[in-house]
Amino acid sequence: xxxxxxxxxxxxxxKMQLEIQQILGAVGDPGRNVRLVAVTKYIGVxxxxxxxxxxITDAGENRWQVARAKVVELPQxxxxxxxxxxxxxxxxxxxxxxxxxxxxxxxxxxxLSKYAQEFGNTLNVMLQVNIxxxxxxxxxxxxxxxxxxxxxxxxxxxxxxxLMGIATNTDxxxxxxxxxxxxxxxxxDLQNRIGVHLPELSMGMSEDxxxxxxxGATMIRIGRKLVLKEGLAL
Length: 234
Description:
Elements: H1 3-26, E1 35-39, H2 45-53, E2 58-61, H3 64-73, E3 78-81, H4 90-96, E4 99-103, H5 106-118, E5 123-129, H6 145-152, E6 158-165, H7 173-194, E7 200-202, H8 209-214, E8 219-222, H9 224-227
Parallel strand pairs: 1-2, 1-8, 2-3, 3-4, 4-5, 5-6, 6-7
Helix pairs in contact: 1-2, 4-5
């Protein structure tokens, strides 16, 4: 147990929660529930345990090989898989994770559905959309989201909760805002046209989460700004 680290995290968490409420108040949406997902990919089991002691309830990982020991040792946390998924890892993810943010093809949804049913789970799923238009990023293209959503609603064992997007890595706030607005507009259009309730928008990371919150994020994925430990660069 690293009590000093726990105090650091409690302080950062309190400051972030206050900032979140201030942003929501400024945009006239003080009642919005925002889930803060601590991205733990660069820290080990002991540090994640300290995060939990400091008040973290949701943790995110993007590689099964890195996540394995943590999810097995700390199953009480709400684990979010936030990275691209190889189909041969879908069984492990369906067993150990509560949320998956990165479904971008129906074959993957089919695999997660099959394995979630095998373990008697209901997996909360976000469809990942390529909102930046960058070829190197995962995600279904915006014009193809409706078709993917329609296909995925047929699967048992998974519940489609919303959309996830990763914005361009840029200092251009206008571009970030435009990309986050695109994701929200897509979500709103899908709800209206298809009639599926999509309450969640997973968007915003350490550098851009304030803009994401202003544009409607209900989940933000925070790594180094929250979990940085002295002497460890995340």
